[in-house]
Amino acid sequence: MRRLMTGLLAAGVSVLFLAAPAAAAAGLPKGFLKYESEQARKPFGEAEISWRVSDKRTEVAALELCAGDELLSQAKSLRSVFADGDADYHYREQVAVFADEKAAAGAMAKLRKAVKGCAKVVIFGGTAAYRGAKLPLGDEALQVSRYNLESKSAYGERSVVARRGSAVIVYAEVALYASKKPKASDFRSQVRDAKAMAVKVCDLPGVC
């Protein structure tokens, strides 16, 4: 294709380039994710948080310490927004669009299996526990927590992963919490964001 286009241009032939559909493999529409917006970022604080947006499918998925880095790698489109504060705080938003609903459901099945297998796992030289619970969100959703079994520290991870049609949505937070064991309030922001995005992804062609 590249040789053909080069030849046409060299011959002086005009070539019309048509825009790709919004949900094509080239990526999601610009500004589609919530935290691409400067306005949405304000509650996090402007000085303490650094932000990064990526469309690379090679970006390590949230929950990678348990599920590995292949959870979302088979998606045809993936956008990630990373918010990084000091060593104790990170927030991640990811939307992955798969080829079809079956492929997206397969990614969720892999996640459930991985979390079950990570009931006790060695991370960073310490022993941690992952716990998963179903959520009534989208077509299917999982609430996942990670906490250290050996330390008294309440530092851990609270994530929500949901599927709507052929899209998988991730909102993950790593922080120092008030309590070591997860509470419903730890997931408030993630659930709120996931619910809103589970509606929004249906605006993408073919997702729902």
Low-confidence residue ranges:
1-26
The proportion of residues forming helix, as a percent range, comes to 10-25%
For this structure, the quaternary state is single chain
**Biggest sheet details:** 8 strands, antiparallel
- What structural category arises from helix and sheet content? alpha+beta
CATH class: Alpha Beta
Mean pLDDT: 83
SSE order, one letter for each helix or strand: HHEHEEHEEEEEH
Q: Count of helices?
A: 5
Global Rg:
19 Å
Strand order of the largest sheet: 1-2-3-8-7-6-5-4
Number of domains: 1
Report how far the terminal alpha carbons are from each other. 32 Å
CATH topology name = Protein Transport Mog1p, Chain A
Corresponding CATH architecture: 3-Layer(aba) Sandwich
Write down how many β-strands occur, each being a DSSP E stretch of 2 or more residues.
8
Described by the principal axes of the CA atoms, the overall outline is: globular
Beta-strand portion reads 25-35%
List keywords for this structure.
single chain, about 210 residues, alpha+beta, Protein Transport Mog1p, Chain A, 8-stranded antiparallel β-sheet, 5 helices, 8 strands, about 30% strand, globular, disordered N terminus
